[in-house]
Specification:
heterodimer; A: 659 residues; alpha/beta; Ubiquitin-like (UB roll); Alpha-Beta Plaits; seven-stranded mixed beta sheet; five-stranded mixed beta sheet; 28 strands; globular; B: 184 residues; Rossmann fold; 7 strands; binds iron/sulfur cluster
């Protein structure tokens, strides 16, 4: 147990434990010591000198944020001398740059301003310098305005410590010192991953959201946690609301998976809606979609679904978004599977589960590895996966591993990936020849480690027939790259293999199986029979869909296709287009008037992400429950209400048919 | 301030938008309180020549210093007032007029008098009677001693009244209480 200590701060007896700083003890005991460069998410900097305190027996002032609290210490945090010093510090900060509060995007929510108000500052006694500093507006989402910067370094620390990329740093000297990106390039052209963490932590108007500079100015904004529906990591965020509308999105300290780190998609892109909302139900009449009331649209839906019940007209196929909460997925599944007797219920990203299950059947019932294993990995092999694009938060974690710990990443993907920039080695096989590369890798592992006796005859044949030369010929990758990739993997103690949507969502059990084999071959199986392998998908609730029992769907000869897309930007592949064109009828429940609408015979409005509440289960099985943040526009009903209504009508139609 | 005599207030503006004075007028019926407790000797619309500014107890200044006339005027005001109070961000903090500090003066004048899209055959006014622009716009404390500054663009009426009332009551305020103190 940590050693308990007692100290006196401003005459008050304060308790803490050894290892805490004076600032931490003060805070814990309800005492206020002003700070500026300190931030709970970040390491201590001790640069702004706001938190200077007097410690009895020490001649110099100490910074409370950095000074260790000691038993018996007598600390003075507030007296005239300290107040004067703090005032001077603040006044110098104001004089150093151009703090024109009336036109500052963050006025009213600025910590520099707060400190100044607390210290009764009405003006600065120092002469202004009026440095000429040009704001950097090249980042699509936020502005960096050096005029308001106090060089507290919070952004620099967050970029390295949380975002992992370390884009930001200090450049130039003295009064010309500014925060720069990389070696002084515009932010928009830098290595910045646009996560916005620096904007969250900046205490002033030096970094601000382009979307909401003046909109989010008021205090007393409401904050509600929610989940990013974009990928299966389960990243939670804080939705900042003003008068019930989303002003902006912030990192949420308590997010169980991602902490305060967000991707540009969950923070910014989620607020861009490319298509108008579907506000009223519509039914196709004489080839035209016409607006109707809910009752008519629901009747039409039930009728279409009931027609296929007899089986004479063909079958119903259900395709659902994986961005929806568990509860909605379950209701949808129940309606189709139980009430429509439909066996073809799937998600838009359906193939992945079938793939994983098939791989499971083929290669045993091991579980895949968890985040902990990824955090501890000393080598990462990415296959068909570009986390920096599809799972940016995971991409940032990997960047951190590379930049902080020098962990090698090897990437195998036929695409040009962003993650390749992080990789020590990146193999770009021709599309369709990935398997050859994996055989080549397996062969190399077996040879380099002398493991021939561990593999079965079939595998042995495959790898014998795939020496690096052949792989190079077949896949168009360099021979040496195959040898080196295998050596890097073989040399690691805790390597993990991560595969992505290119494998999980297109269905390739053999590829996935080979990955499992590679892990098993070198004994990379954890205590709980976890193979150090993990597949990722792009729908937030793919895991829930899997649990509920969404299986593959056969679109061939579908009489009715019922799509519940919500606000999912469904990838309208040529195949899906064709399937929808061939279908007898299409029911679409969608939040947006997107490209799917043209195929629909009935269009039902649906909720978008901020209007939905429920439970999400991430790729590792972590469940999170959130309430809706905003209200749906008038006339739009909750998805579950719609599903229940359809169910009831369907029963009624059936009963009527029986009579 | 003597007991027998009501304190005299005078207000002026330099390079400002007059918004601060509008805010001063926003004290509404409290203007009567001001007139009860003191008297107003001059406002920006009072016509007076340099050298003829009335003696006062409290001089209120809006706006920043952008030209040589501003300085002369300010110096006279300082000499004539017992307490000089600047109010508004232009006067003491940094505001609209300061924006020209980030460009060379010549460029600013050319933009204003020659390049602006509605100007035909423009030229930069150069009459000897005209005051000369300073290279850099400054808050008034750069030139004279200021006894108190009220920040804000404009300071709210409540804030202005608070300070003026304190002065009329014969107290130099130690600061501005929290909800009244704002820089924007
Ligand atoms: S950063 Fe803060 S102190 Fe500086 S101008 Fe903006 S609001 Fe004012
Ligand atoms: S940009 Fe913001 S966080 Fe970064 S140093 Fe300047 S004031 Fe601090
Ligand atoms: S947005 Fe993220 S990556 Fe970009 S500079 Fe800020 S912290 Fe760094
Ligand atoms: S401080 Fe604001 S209101 Fe006052 S004169 Fe300047 S611009 Fe106008």
């Amino acid at each position: 147990m940590a050693e308990l200590i007692t100290l006196t701060i401003d005459g008050q007896e304060c308790r803490g434990t050894k290892g805490m700083t004076i600032l931490q003890v003060a805070k814990e005991n309800g005492l206020d010591i002003p700070t500026l460069c300190n931030h709970p998410w970040l390491t201590t900097h001790g640069g702004c000198r706001m938190c200077v305190v007097e410690v009895e027996g020490q001649r110099r002032l100490v910074t409370a944020c950095a000074a260790p609290a000691e038993d018996g210490q007598i600390v003075v945090a507030h007296n005239d001398r300290l107040e004067t010093l703090r005032q001077m510090t603040l006044e110098l900060l104001f004089a150093e740059r151009n703090h024109i509060c009336p036109f500052c995007a963050m006025t009213g929510v600025c910590e520099l301003q707060d400190r100044a108000y607390e210290h009764h500052i009405t003006h600065t006694r120092y002469d202004y310098i009026f440095p000429v500093l040009t704001p950097d507006t090249t980042n699509p989402y936020f502005v960096q305005d050096h005029n308001r910067c106090i060089l507290c370094g919070r952004c620099v620390r967050s970029c390295y410590e949380i975002a992992g990329v370390g884009t930001l740093g200090f450049g130039h000297r003295g009064s010309q010192e500014v925060v720069i990106a990389d070696l002084g390039v515009p932010l928009g052209e830098s290595s910045c991953i646009k996560c916005g963490t620096c904007v969250d932590v900046c205490p002033t108007g030096a970094l601000f959201d382009k979307r909401a500079p003046y909109f989010s100015r008021a205090r007393g904004l409401e904050r509600k946690p929610s989940i990013c529906p974009d990928d299966d990591l389960g990243c939670a965020m804080n939705v900042v609301l003003k008068s019930g509308l989303v002003a902006r999105i912030e990192g949420w300290t308590e997010a169980p998976v991602n902490g305060p780190l967000l991707s540009y998609r969950s923070r910014y892109e989620i607020l861009n809606e490319p298509h108008p909302r579907v506000l009223k139900p519509r039914v196709r009449k004489d080839g035209e979609l016409v607006e109707v009331d809910w009752a008519e649209a629901l009747d039409a839906t039930a009728e279409l679904l009931a027609k296929t019940q007899s089986g004479a007209d063909g079958h119903v196929v259900g395709l659902c978004s994986t961005r929806l909460p568990y509860e909605t997925l379950a209701s949808y599944h129940r309606l189709l599977a139980e009430q429509c007797g439909c066996v073809d219920v799937d998600t838009f990203r359906g193939a992945q589960r079938a793939t994983r299950r098939q791989a499971d059947d083929l290669y045993g019932t091991h579980k895949e590895c968890d985040f902990e294993a990824i955090q501890q990995a000393d080598m990462v092999l990415l296959v068909g996966f570009d986390p920096c694009t599809t799972h940016p938060v995971l991409g940032a974690w990997l960047a951190k591993k590379v930049h902080h710990d020098g962990v090698p990443i090897v990437s195998i993907s036929p695409r040009t990936t962003k993650t390749a920039e992080l990789s020590i080695l990146s193999l770009k096989p021709r599309r369709g020849s990935e398997l050859a590369v994996l055989y080549g890798l397996l062969g190399q592992l077996i040879e380099q480690r002398n493991l021939g006796h561990l593999v079965d005859r079939l595998t042995a044949e495959k790898w014998r027939s795939h020496p690096p030369g052949r792989v190079s010929y077949e896949a168009g990758v360099e021979e040496q790259a195959v040898v080196r990739a295998a050596a890097l993997y073989a040399a690691a103690k805790n390597p993990v293999i991560l595969y992505g949507p290119d494998l999980t969502e297109t269905g390739n059990p053999t590829l996935i199986g080979r990955l499992w084999e590679m892990a098993q071959l070198l004994g990379h199986v954890g205590a709980s029979k976890e193979v150090m392998v993990r597949g990722f998908t792009t729908g937030a609730n793919s895991a829930a869909a899997e649990q509920i029992g969404f299986r593959g769907a056969d679109m061939e000869g579908a009489a009715v296709v019922y799509l519940l897309s919500g606000d999912d930007p469904v990838d309208l592949t040529p195949q899906l287009r064709q399937d929808l064109r061939d279908a007898g009828a299409v029911i679409l429940q969608s939040a947006h008037d997107g490209p799917l609408v043209q195929y629909a015979d009935v269009v039902l409005p649906s909720l978008k992400w901020s209007e939905r509440g429920g439970t999400w289960i991430n790729v590792m099985g972590v469940g999170q429950t959130f309430e809706a943040c905003t209200k749906a526009p008038a006339g739009i009903k909750p998805d579950e209400w719609v599903l229940t209504e359809i169910g009831e009508r369907l029963s009624a139609v059936k009963e009527a048919a029986h009579e | 301030m003597s007991e027998a005599r009501k304190p005299v207030i005078a207000s002026v503006w330099l390079a400002g938008c007059s918004g601060c004075h509008m805010s001063l007028l926003d004290i509404d019926e409290r203007l009567l309180t001001v007139l009860e407790k003191g008297s107003i000797a001059a406002t920006p619309i009072t016509d007076f020549k340099l050298g003829s500014f009335p003696q006062c107890d409290v001089g209120l200044v809006e706006g920043s210093v952008t030209n040589t006339d501003n300085i002369k005027f300010l110096e006279e005001l300082r000499a004539k007032s017992t307490y000089l109070v600047s109010f508004g961000d232009c006067a003491g903090w940094g505001c609209v007029p300061f924006m020209r500090n980030f460009f060379p003066l010549q460029e600013v004048l050319e933009h204003g008098y020659i390049w602006s899209s509605s100007t035909v055959d423009g030229h930069i006014p150069d009459d000897e009677e005209l005051p000369t622009f300073l290279d850099v716009v400054e808050p008034i404390r750069k030139f004279v001693k200021v006894d108190f500054h009220i920040p804000g663009c404009p300071p709210s009426a409540d804030t202005i009244f608070y300070v003026v009332n304190e002065l009329l009551e014969g107290r130099m305020p130690a600061g501005i209480p929290q909800p009244l103190l704002h820089f924007d």
